[in-house]
Structures are given as structure tokens and as C-alpha cells.
Amino acid sequence: MKNTIKVERAKNDMTQSDLAKKIQVTRQTIHAIEQSKYVPSTVLALRLASVFKTTVDEIFTLEESDWKK
Amino acid sequence: MKPPFLLPQQLKILGWILLIPCAILGILYVAADYSLFALPAGGSKDGLFESPSDLYDELIGILTIIGGLLVAFCRVPEEDEYVTGLRLDSLVWATYLSYAVLILAMAFLYDVAFWYVMIVNMFTVLAFFIIRFHWQLARFKKSV
Question: How far is CA A26 from the centre of its chain?
Fold first, then answer.
């Protein structure tokens, strides 16, 4: 799953630590999500969308590999 | 991910204080029959159940398990849903590994040797979980 968190952070002039504090996770978790190493829960995805004042599907996009088991 | 029930972070240090000495004393007891002190219980062989004459090994075993549970399941400062995922992953690995040891012991060991493995196997799920989880957590903390 691709995401645009890095872009959204840049738009909002936020560091990974700033964003981590706002959505109550560790900076390392933000890093893992940005690197697509971790897919966040729905709650976390909604928190991210809320912080960036956008929708979840603007931030996250499914890839072909996400349809394979 | 809904976080599992975890113990308060402050109890983790107590867990290490219990786990390390009790695990060492437990290993010494099983491997070398060494007891730091005697804990007579006045056991008897009457009736259906045989009660133990010395409670030293029971005490060490119980304290090791309590210490292990505190170390394994106290919250960590970095606790979030990613860490919850690490816990789940470590628990799955610990279960696989623990039962792999038991299968090997069942297949290749008999009598007293198997009995020793059974004793150790009571603690392997916790031990493997603690090792794997803390290793994964250290890697996570080091990630850029």
C-alpha cells in the first residue's frame, strides 16, 4: 500500500516527531508507515487524515500486490 | 489494533529483579542440584496426593514465572499499535519454537533427559518471547 504521508508532512511543515505526537504513536512507527513497512489500523489512518484535514483514500492507495494473499 | 491487557510499566524493573536471580538459581537447581537454602514443608506421602518435603524449587519456579510475566507483559515507553504487532509476532515465534523443542525432545529423548526438557519447557515460551520481543523492540528503536 502506497501513501503520501511524507508529502502531506512537507505540505504541513511537520517533522515525523510532530506527527507522531499528534496521532499518539512513536516516531519510528511514522517512519515504518512512510516506508510502507507497516500498514496502520483504521483508527490510525483516520487520525492521520484528520491531522492533514483530508480523507484516508487521499493518503493511502492500494497496489496490485495488496490483492494477493 | 486494540491493545491487549498489559501491566503497568513501573513493574517491569521488579520483573527483572525477580527473573534474573531466580532463573539463575533455577538453572543451578536443575543442572547441579544446588539449593541456596532449604525450605522444609513437612511433606507426607499419605493419601492420594504426595506433598513435597521441600518447597525451594516450587518457590524459585513460581518467582521465575512471575518475573518473566512482568518482563514480558509490562507496557514499554514506546507502546503503540506497531509494538502491539511486535508482541503478537514474538508470541507466535515463541510458541512455534517452544513446541519445536518439545517435539524434538519427544522424538529423541527418553527417561530422565526428557524429564529435564519438560521442566525447561515450562519456561521456554516466556523465555523465547522475552528474547525475541526485546530484540525486535531494540531494532525498532534504532530504526531511523
Answer: 13
* Whether residue B83 sits in one domain with residue B54: no
Whole-complex ipTM: 0.87
Nearest residue of B to residue A42, measured between CA atoms: B1
Residues B121 and B83 grouped into a single domain: yes
Nearest CA among B61, B9, A12 for reference residue A48: A12
The pTM of this model reads: 0.88
Architecture of domain A2-63: Orthogonal Bundle (1.10)
Q: Which of A28, A46, A48 to probe by mutation at the B interface, max B CB count within 10 Å?
A: A28
Q: Point out the domain boundary residue: B75, B105, B129.
A: B75
Out of B1, B141, B143, name the one closest to residue A41 (CB).
B1
